[in-house]
Structure formats: structure tokens, C-alpha cells
């Protein structure tokens, strides 16, 4: 009933919501906005009552009435629009709506997230001596953070001691709360001995934080779940938090003044859940793509690289010293055995590789044996004798060949020794080895020394000569291009003007100078050069950095182009107008060592500024993007039936990612086992000498026989399929060796495979497949949102060139991701990629391009003239036959007549006349009201724009050439929209043609095609920026966007269609609107989702909250079962 919407009473909120502030300076109190507004409303109300009772003027009552109406509106929402100018209040107040909405409002500022107790924040420092899972906590912090420990018979003496120590001595206690009492005793005062003596079982002692306590450690911005992990405290005397540098990557922390937060969980349940689910040992791997994130960094990689060089030999003293580093912490009682020395005469020496192997296998009886074969960072082309010694082979934890570098020790890879340890022997072994590495390499590098000085970046004479040659060569090529452009002999690139072509080739030429200079640096620098060691080991820097320091800073790019001309047609006043020489357009030929000239410095600053602005804008953009993603995907959870459902039980995916496997456990691209490595590992581990080796043709029948055993009956089908496919390749390999070598001799050892090998291999692979199944309760939605949002911060906001076509820009990076997840109807660069029926014939491609690209009459005419005769006047159109032939257009005079007849000019058929093959006459219509002359003038302006060939809504199509295969293949990149028309064009393979416009694909091919387009587009943007995100995350996002049968954007409008919950919508955006609507329609919120549960302080239905515990009750009797309603015959 509309009458219910008229406000007749106002609730007066309690005083705690509108506190009065007592000021000492001036007398009286300062009241809250709400109190002031309510007193004004009361005052006006009294005035109206007084006027009506005493019979005041109608105009006055009317005016007060309006005033009351306005004040009540401002009480609810102080930013309400449409307030008359005469009534605008002098001071802006905060209404009820203002208290609820926005980042600082109740919903986002106090309900969805709160400030907490038992937290600490200070600066961080590195400490390689701490274990991977430890964090050093200052004693000062440890005395303030307390944990409530309950007294029981086993710890009562310890608790008494803590109480006696009091608040100032560590370890001590701050408070004691007696059983059954709500009162706490503060231990800074009072008789502590008496309190300690009176302690009873059941009392609670709030003791100081001590070694081994479970704490949560976090760095903002928290972009993914690994930004907050669980560590064990180690109380130290310093004033900063300290942790091992291996754990930097997940936090994205460096030690240039970063601060981090520490939280101390207050219950045993919270501690257990934190240690098991959030412990950093359990989170060595990122859910984004299953790569190792906690691994060796910087110094450790440099140390490992230097130690495993071919010429690194150690005397007994040094070898013992390094081996002794391993005996500490949890390994204090570990046995370390040096292997036999590599060199016996003239003195006993060990190689660095032998000592490094102790990290993986400290003594002969160690059971952690790893087997890897992988390419290092500087791998050339030859496995057998790589000249950089960068093909790494590790057999049973001994390095056979290869130097260790970022690829084999660092994060972001799956070929790393720690990743293999984690997958084969568990997290404990991996973190222990990581700690051993950090101890050994930091000790080694401290003793050996590793400094970086001016001498390391001083170029030699030879290098300077090389650089000058490169510059002269590059400059002369650029001069050639400029002179060619002036004379008009420069060949245009497809779809580019002369100017664009020149810029493109010059940018390419000048950018290559820096690349070549970097190569020259690498060839000239001595192998002991610090910068070179850091770049080659992958610990810091790259060849570009070295080149810029020593040889040449190179071309400065702004917006992906050379420095543009400013005012007055030049980049700076120091150059001539319209100058195109490299120096005038941002090429810096000096190095940082030699110093930059003023103009070079200016251009370098321009490029640097662009980077800063880009970063600042990007941070805000990606932050909002990630917030929207999380809000829309937060309640998607894997259930016990394997489906992914939202909070109200709607199915979003029937199987997570199509196979139900967890990205964390993928050892190779979307497979849970690296089959090749696993097979090699088993053969190296177990020789089975007593067994007879299988011949090539026996392998497959034996494997099939093993798989038919009872223990494999219920195994996954994909495990059986993948294993048999792999074993078939092993069979081929064995057969090939059998045919080349005698299997009785040494040849048999190359590929010796027994039945036991096969059985063990299949058992391990099956275990890994079972382990990789996603656990029910996994919050896959939130993980997908983080995995897509977090790499966004490392992307650029730039527009890049389309592969193979210089002139066709395509939106990439953050703007493209935003376009996709907003499901924008109009995108900035719509492109249709059309596959051709005959994709190796350039002539055919040109013809199809002519059928698609819009061709107007003006473009293919030599002239269009008005002809006046005494008795007649007409337009004469002369076609440019040569141009039509070159462009491969299927157009002649008859086509023109047909196009003119069907155009909107409403010309009569007998008004158009064709003369020969290239002349067309068009006569104006004489029956019109206007004169013939006017009509002829109108026709002459309109006719050149008539479309005579191609599709009218496609302005441009470019032939893209792919040289990856021979002969080269061609495809069409079509700018604009019109997917249906392009697919229907003769010569185009319609079922292989795709568009990057999601809405167009949806309207043409339906919802499944739109879902696939979302997936491929996001994946292509990510891979274009070198980011790897598991396809399962992208698939889930696409499924959520299309699960309602239409494409919904991840925006406030899309969220409103995906969710019914008022709390969820109100805690996102438009808080007041959603609350008003909900109260108007009397909406009910079922409190199922994550946001709603957090707001009300209930456990959310994800993770450990997805199930309930059923209590056993012996007295409970099952109801008698009803008879079934339907009987099945």
C-alpha cells in the first residue's frame, strides 16, 4: 500500500551511534550530525503544529511543510539531488546513507572487514639462517601479543613460572583469568607469587608469544591467498620482523623499507586450521598455475651458480667448511658424508657440483633421491656437450653435468630441484633442502666475496669499436630509409601509409642495435664479471640491463612508438623541424657508464615518466577489477558430487575444469604427472638386476595385464589412457634400440625395463592422479578471481601490434581484460580472423579480401565528371581497370550498374547506362521537383561513396602472413563487425572463422561459442604478456559469465542478475539503492553466500565450513520408512 511509504515516525538511534564530543576549549558539547538533524526536524514539526493550532497562513504552513519534507530527506541521504537553491544547507552533514555506503561506510569499513586485536606491524629484514617456515619476532612485540592458554596438570608449573615473570620479563604473562570469572588480573601490579600459587586447572593465563607459536604473516596489497601465510614465531632481540628470503616471492616483498603485519590466532582450532591450511610449507606452490613460488632467490641462485661451475674445485678444508654449514637447526644431529674426491693428485680436491649435491643427499643412506634432466637458462643447442654447460642431468641426487641456475633452483618453474622434491618426497624434504641451500650458498658467497663496482661496467676498447660499427651501420640504414621515403621508393607495408611504414622499419632497426650491443657485451665481458654472472644465473638483471650500463641505452619508446614531435613540428628545440634522424626521435647512443647528453637525458626521462604514470593508473584499475572478480566468484565451491555450485546450489560447472583436477598438482601442462621424468626416476632408483628385461613388443601387453589387476579396476580412465599412450612411446624407443644394438650387451642397459618397473610406475602415477582430484570445499571461485586478478598488476595498459601485421593495432593488457570481463557490447578494436579455403595462395587471399573489404565507387574510378549537352546532362563514370585488376576485385561495369540500382539513390533502371567495359552513364531523374542541375550536383557528391563491392560495415581487411611454416600461410584480419557476413563469404572457411567480440559471437553462434571466446581471449592476453594462468580458472570465469544463458559482465549490473542476496549486493556498490529496493519489495535474504555470512559473523559455506559434524546419539530412533508411492514392475 503506497500509504505505508509515508514516514510518520522516526526512530531515534542510541547514543553510541551519535556520540557527543565534549570540548575543553569552548563551553558545552559538539553534537553529532544525526542529533542536530533530528532536533531540526522536531523544531520544524513543532512549528507546523503551532501554526495549524493557532491558524497560521496557508503559505507559511506550506513552506514549513516543504522544509520538513526536505529535512527528513536530508536526514536519510544528505546528498539527495533536486534540493531548491534557497534551501541548500550551509554545512554538508552525514546522513544515514552516507554512514552505510563507500569504502569507509558500515558495510565495507566495519562489517566485511574490521580492525583487529593481537596484530603487530613493523619493518622487515632478511635472515637466511631462519628456517623457511619461521619468522623472527622482536621481543618487544612478543611481550605485547598474548595467547590465552588454559591451565591443566601438565603445564601448571610452566604457567606459574610465566605468571611470576610478569609483564616485563620474556617469556612472561600479562593477565590471568580465573575459572568461572569474567574478571582479568593484570600482572604488572599486585603480588605475582600469590597469583601464581593460586593458579588452578581451568584458569586462563594470557602468556607472551613464545618460540614455535603459530602466527599469520601478511603483506599488503594482498592480491592472492599466498599474501597471508602461517609461520612459526622465533623471538629475537632485534626491532624488525625477519624471515628467510626464499619466502619473498609469494609476498612480493623486498627489504627497501617494506612493512608487514603479524597476527596471533587466539584459539586452538584457529591455530590448527592456520598451520594445516595456511602454513607456508603447505603453500610452496601457487594455485595460479601450479608452479613453485617459494624457492631460492638472488644471492642463493648466484651462490649455487658459482659453486657448480666446471672449474670450481675445493680443497678439503673448504669442502668440510661448506658441509658443516648443513649441520644446524633441525639438522643439528644429521650425518654429513663427503663423497670420494674428484681429484687425488697433486692434492685431494672436490668439485663444486659434488658439494652442492650434499644439499639434496647429505649422506649415502639418504632416501631422498631425485632424477631430473632439464635445460638450464643459457642452454645452447647441444645436449651432449653444451658449451655453456647448461644442460642439467641429476641422477639419484648427484649432479652429473650442468650448472645450477634460476631454472633449476628458482621460482616460477616446474623443473626445479625443490619442485621435484616436493612432488616425490613431500613438503618437509623440499623446505629442508631449501634451507640447506640458503645456509651453504650464503656462507660460500660471504667468504668468496661477490661485489659489483665501476670496473664491472667499464667497456673495453674492442667493445667500444664494436658498438661504433653497430651505430654506423644502423644510422646508415636509417638514412637510406629516410631518403627512400623522400623519393617515394619506400615499399609500403600492407595497410600502412608511407609515414607509418618509415616509423615501423626505423623503430625495428634502432631497437635491434641494443639487442646486438647486448650480444657484443656478452661476448666481450670476462666470465667472472659480476653483472654477467647475475644475468646468466637469472638472479637479477638481464642482457638488456648490461647493454644499457656498458654499451648503449637504446631507443626510448613512448606509447610503443618513437618520441613524437611536440609543438613546432620537432621533438625538442635542439633539432631541425620535421627531422626524422634517430637522435631527434629518442635514440640514446650513450651508455649509463659514459653518461647521457642533455637531449638524451630528456628523452630517457620521458620514457621513465610514462612508466610511472602507467603503473599508478594500472594499480587502481586492476585493484577494482580484482574486487569485482572476487565479488562475483566468491561463493563458487566444489561440492562432494564433484560439481561447482554457488551459494544457493545452482550448478556452474558439472566438473571443475572439465576433469575435476586441481591446478596445484599439475606437474606438466594440465597433467598431474610428468610421465617421462617419473619413468626415468623409477628406472634410476630400482635396477631389478635379477629380473629379465622386457623386449619392446612385450611392454604394451605387460602394461595392459597390470592395469587389469584388481587394484586398478576403479582407477580413472584418463590415468589409464595417458599411461598407455606414454608406454607406447617407450615401446617404440626400445624397439628402435633393439634394431640398432645388441640387447645382450651394453645396448640393453640403455633402455632396460622390467615388469616390476612397469608395475611401480603405474602405481605411482595412479596415486598422483588420485591426489590431484580437487578436494570438496575448495573455494575455486575465489582462487580463479585471484589467479586472474593478480597477474593483471604486472601487465601494461598498452596497445600492441597484431601478430604479423604492423598496421593493425589490437587492444591488449589490462584494457582488454577489462573489456572481456565487462562483456562490453562495443569494443575498441573488433577484429574477425578469417581462415581461407586455399590458405597458401596469395592471389586467392587478395580475391577474398576484395569480397570482404568495402569498396566505394570513388576508390576504383579514374574520374567522375558532370557532362552538360544542349539537350542532355549526365554523370560520366570512368572505371580504373588497372587498379581493379591489381586489387583482385571482382567488379566490372555491370556490377556498378547493379550496385547503383540497389542503392538508396532511387535511380530508375533506364537512367543508368553502360558503355563498353569501363564507362557508366548516370542521368538524374527529371520528374523531381528540383531542377536537373541541382539533382546532378547532388548525385556527383553522393555517388563516389556508394559501396560497389565487399561488405558495407567492414572498412578494412588485411592479409596476415605466417612464416612459421613453409610454404607461408595467409589469413585475413578483418577490422569491424559482421561475423555472419564474413563467414558466409565465398572462399572463407566459416567454421574456422572467429571474432574477438563476445556479443557478436553470442548473437551469431550462441552461448557456448561465447564462452569459448571468453576463454580464448583471456588466455591470449595472458600468454601475450608472458603470464601463465591455468585454463581451469579462465574456464570457471567464462562459465560463471554465461551460466544464465546470456553473457553477463562482472559489473554491478551483472552481479545483480547473478545474485539475489541483499547483503551481497549492498556490500558491493549502490548500497542505499539495494537496501531501499529490498525494504520496498519485502525481500528475504537466506544468508547463504560468503559476504552475507562474514557480515553476520557466521562460518561461510566454503573450505572447512562446507560440512557439519553429525553427533552420535544412541537414543535416536529412525522413523519408520513410508511405503514407496510408485512401484516399478
Could you tell me the mean pLDDT? 88
Q: Helix coverage percent of residues?
A: 40-55%
The global form is globular
The CATH architecture assignment of the domain at 119-278 turns out to be Beta Barrel
Strand elements, count: 34
Q: How much is the radius of gyration in Å?
A: 38 Å
Kindly report the CATH topology of the domain at 119-278.
Barwin-like endoglucanases
List low-confidence stretches. Answer: 799-806
Largest sheet: 6 strands, mixed
Keywords: DNA-directed RNA polymerase, Magnesium, Metal-binding, Nucleotidyltransferase, Nucleus, Transcription, Transferase, Zinc
Subunit structure: Component of the RNA polymerase III (Pol III) complex consisting of 17 subunits.
EC number: 2.7.7.6
Protein name: DNA-directed RNA polymerase subunit
Brief characterization of the structure:
This protein has about 1150 residues and is an alpha+beta fold. A six-stranded mixed beta sheet has the order 4-10-9-12-3-11. The protein has a four-stranded antiparallel beta sheet with strand order 5-8-6-7. The two termini are about 55 Å apart.
Amino acid at each position: 500500500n503506497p500509504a505505508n511509504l509515508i514516514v510518520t515516525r522516526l526512530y531515534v538511534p542510541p547514543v553510541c551511534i551519535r556520540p557527543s564530543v565534549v570540548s575543553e576549549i569552548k563551553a558545552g558539547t559538539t553534537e553529532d550530525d544525526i542529533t542536530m538533524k533530528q532536533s531540526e526536524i522536531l523544531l520544524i514539526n513543532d512549528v507546523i503544529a503551532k501554526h495549524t493550532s493557532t491558524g497560521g497562513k496557508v503559505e507559511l504552513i506550506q513552506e514549513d511543510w516543504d522544509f520538513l519534507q526536505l529535512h527528513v530527506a536530508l536526514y536519510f541521504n544528505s546528498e539527495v539531488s533536486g534540493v531548491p537553491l534557497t534551501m541548500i544547507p550551509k554545512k554538508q552533514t552525514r546522513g544515514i546513507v552516507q554512514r552505510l555506503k563507500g569504502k569507509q561506510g558500515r558495510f565495507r569499513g566495519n562489517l566485511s572487514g574490521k580492525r583487529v586485536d593481537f596484530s603487530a606491524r613493523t619493518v622487515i629484514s632478511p635472515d637466511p639462517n631462519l628456517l623457511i617456515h619461521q619468522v623472527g619476532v622482536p621481543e618487544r612485540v612478543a611481550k605485547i601479543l598474548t595467547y590465552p592458554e588454559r591451565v591443566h596438570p601438565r603445564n601448571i608449573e610452566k604457567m606459574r613460572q610465566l605468571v611470576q615473570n610478569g609483564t616485563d620479563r620474556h617469556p612472561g604473562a600479562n593477565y590471568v583469568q580465573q575459572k568461572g570469572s569474567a574478571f582479568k588480573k593484570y600482572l604488572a601490579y599486585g603480588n605475582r607469587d600469590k597469583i601464581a600459587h593460586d593458579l588452578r586447572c581451568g584458569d586462563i593465563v594470557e602468556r607472551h608469544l613464545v618460540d614455535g607459536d603459530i602466527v599469520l604473516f601478511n603483506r599488503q596489497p594482498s592480491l592472492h591467498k599466498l599474501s597471508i601465510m602461517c609461520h612459526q614465531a622465533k623471538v629475537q632481540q632485534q626491532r624488525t620482523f625477519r624471515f628467510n628470503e626464499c619466502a619473498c616471492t609469494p609476498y612480493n616483498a623486498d627489504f627497501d623499507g617494506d612493512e608487514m603485519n603479524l597476527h596471533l590466532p587466539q584459539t586452538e582450532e584457529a591455530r590448527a586450521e592456520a598451520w594445516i591450511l595456511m602454513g607456508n610449507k603447505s603453500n610452496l606452490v601457487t594455485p595460479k598455475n601450479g608452479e613453485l613460488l617459494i624457492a631460492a632467490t638472488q644471492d642463493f641462485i648466484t651462490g649455487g651458480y658459482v659453486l657448480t661451475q666446471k672449474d670450481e674445485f675445493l680443497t678439503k678444508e673448504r669442502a668440510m667448511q661448506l658441509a658443516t654449514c648443513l649441520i644446524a637447526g633441525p639438522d643439528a644431529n644429521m650425518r654429513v658424508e663427503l663423497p670420494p674426491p674428484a681429484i687425488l693428485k697433486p692434492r685431494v680436491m672436490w668439485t663444486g657440483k659434488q658439494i652442492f649435491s650434499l644439499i639434496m643427499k647429505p649422506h649415502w643412506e639418504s632416501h631422498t633421491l631425485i632424477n631430473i634432466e632439464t635445460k638450464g637458462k643459457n642452454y645452447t643447442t647441444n645436449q651432449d656437450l653444451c658449451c655453456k654447460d647448461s644442460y642439467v642431468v641429476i641422477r639419484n641426487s648427484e649432479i652429473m653435468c650442468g650448472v645450477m641456475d634460476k631454472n633449476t633452483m628458482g621460482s616460477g618453474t616446474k623443473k626445479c630441484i625443490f619442485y621435484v622434491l616436493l612432488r616425490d618426497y613431500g613438503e618437509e624434504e623440499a623446505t629442508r633442502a631449501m634451507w640447506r641451500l640458503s645456509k651453504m650458498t650464503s656462507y660460500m658467497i660471504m667468504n668468496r666475496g661477490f661485489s659489483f663496482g665501476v670496473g664491472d661496467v667499464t667497456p673495453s676498447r674492442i667493445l667500444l669499436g664494436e658498438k661504433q660499427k653497430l651505430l654506423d651501420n644502423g644510422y646508415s640504414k636509417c638514412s637510406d630509409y629516410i631518403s627512400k621515403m623522400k623519393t617515394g621508393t619506400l615499399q609500403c607495408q600492407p595497410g600502412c601509409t608511407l609515414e607509418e611504414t618509415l616509423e615501423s622499419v626505423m623503430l625495428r632497426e634502432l631497437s635491434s642495435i641494443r639487442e646486438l650491443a647486448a650480444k657484443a657485451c656478452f661476448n666481450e665481458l670476462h666470465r667472472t664479471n659480476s653483472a654477467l654472472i647475475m644475468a646468466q644465473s637469472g638472479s637479477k638483471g638481464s642482457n638488456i640491463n648490461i647493454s644499457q650500463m656498458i654499451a648503449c641505452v637504446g631507443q626510448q619508446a613512448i606509447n610503443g612508438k618513437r618520441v613524437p614531435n611536440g609543438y613546432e613540428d620537432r621533438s625538442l628545440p635542439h633539432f631541425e623541424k620535421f627531422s626524422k634522424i634517430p637522435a631527434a626521435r629518442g635514440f640514446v647512443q650513450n651508455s649509463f657508464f659514459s653518461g647521457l647528453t642533455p637531449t638524451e637525458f630528456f628523452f630517457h626521462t620521458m620514457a621513465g615518466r610514462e612508466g610511472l604514470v602507467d603503473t599508478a593508473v594500472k594499480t587502481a584499475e586492476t585493484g577494482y577489477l580484482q574486487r569485482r572478480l572476487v565479488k562475483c566468484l566468491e561463493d563458487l565451491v566444489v561440492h562432494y558430487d564433484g560439481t561447482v555450485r554457488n551459494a544457493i546450489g545452482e550448478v556452474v560447472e558439472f566438473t571443475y575444469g572439465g576433469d575435476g583436477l586441481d591446478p596445484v598438482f599439475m606437474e606438466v601442462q594440465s597433467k598431474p604427472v610428468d610421465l617421462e621424468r617419473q619413468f626415468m626416476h623409477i628406472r634410476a632408483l630400482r635396477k631389478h638386476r635379477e629380473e629379465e628385461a622386457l623386449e619392446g613388443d612385450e611392454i604394451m601387453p605387460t602394461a595392459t595385464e597390470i592395469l587389469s589387476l584388481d587394484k586398478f579396476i576403479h582407477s580413472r580412465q584418463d590415468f589409464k589412457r595417458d599411461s598407455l599412450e606414454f608406454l607406447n612411446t617407450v615401446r617404440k624407443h626400445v624397439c628402435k634400440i633393439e634394431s640398432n644394438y645388441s640387447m645382450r650387451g651394453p645396448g640393453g642397459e640403455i633402455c632396460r625395463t622390467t615388469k616390476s618397473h612397469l608395475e611401480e610406475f603405474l602405481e605411482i602415477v595412479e596415486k598422483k592422479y588420485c591426489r590431484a582430484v580437487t578436494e570438496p570445499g575448495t573455494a575455486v571461485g575465489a582462487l580463479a578471481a585471484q589467479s586472474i586478478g593478480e597477474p593483471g598488476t604486472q601487465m601494461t595498459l598498452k596497445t600492441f601490434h597484431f601478430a604479423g601485421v604492423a598496421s593493425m593495432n589490437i587492444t591488449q593488457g589490462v584494457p582488454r581484460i577489462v573489456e572481456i570481463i565487462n562483456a562490453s557490447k562495443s569494443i575498441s578494436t573488433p577484429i574477425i580472423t578469417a581462415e581461407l579455403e586455399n590458405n597458401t595462395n596469395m592471389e586467392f587471399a587478395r580475391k577474398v579480401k576484395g569480397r570482404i573489404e568495402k569498396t566505394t565507387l570513388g576508390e576504383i574510378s579514374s574520374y567522375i565528371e558532370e557532362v552538360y549537352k544542349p539537350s542532355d546532362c549526365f554523370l560520366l563514370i570512368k572505371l580504373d581497370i588497372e587498379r581493379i585488376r591489381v586489387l583482385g576485385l571482382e567488379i566490372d561495369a555491370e556490377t556498378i550498374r547493379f550496385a547503383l540500382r540497389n542503392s538508396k539513390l532511387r535511380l530508375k533502371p533506364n537512367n543508368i547506362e553502360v558503355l563498353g567495359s569501363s564507362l557508366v552513364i548516370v542521368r538524374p531523374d527529371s520528374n523531381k521537383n528540383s531542377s536537373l542541375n541541382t539533382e546532378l550536383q547532388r548525385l556527383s557528391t553522393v555517388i563516389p561513396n556508394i559501396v560497389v563491392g565487399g561488405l558495407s560495415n567492414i572498412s578494412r581487411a588485411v592479409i596476415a602472413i605466417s612464416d612459421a611454416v613453409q610454404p607461408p600461410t595467409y589469413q585475413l584480419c578483418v577490422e569491424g563487425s559482421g561475423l555472419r557476413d564474413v563467414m558466409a563469404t565465398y572462399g572463407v572457411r566459416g567454421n574456422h572463422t572467429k571474432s574477438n567480440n563476445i556479443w557478436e559471437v553470442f548473437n551469431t553462434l550462441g552461448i557456448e561459442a561465447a564462452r569459448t571466446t571468453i576463454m580464448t581471449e583471456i588466455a591470449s592476453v595472458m600468454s601475450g604478456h608472458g603470464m601463465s594462468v591455468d585454463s581451469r580458472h579462465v574456464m570457471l570465469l567464462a562459465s560463471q559469465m554465461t551460466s544464465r544463458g546470456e553473457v553477463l559482465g562482472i559489473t554491478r549490473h551483472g552481479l545483480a542478475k547473478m545474485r539475489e542476496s541483499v547483503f551481497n549486493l549492498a556490500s558491493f556498490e549502490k548500497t542505499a539503492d539495494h537496501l531501499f529496493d529490498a525494504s520496498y519489495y519485502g525481500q528475504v535474504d537466506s544468508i547463504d553466500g560468503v559476504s552475507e555470512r562474514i557480515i553476520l559473523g557466521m562460518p561461510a559455506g566454503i573450505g572447512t565450513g562446507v560440512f557439519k559434524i553429525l553427533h552420535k546419539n544412541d537414543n535416536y530412533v529412525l522413523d519408520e520408512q513410508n511405503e514407496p508411492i510408485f512401484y516399478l514392475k
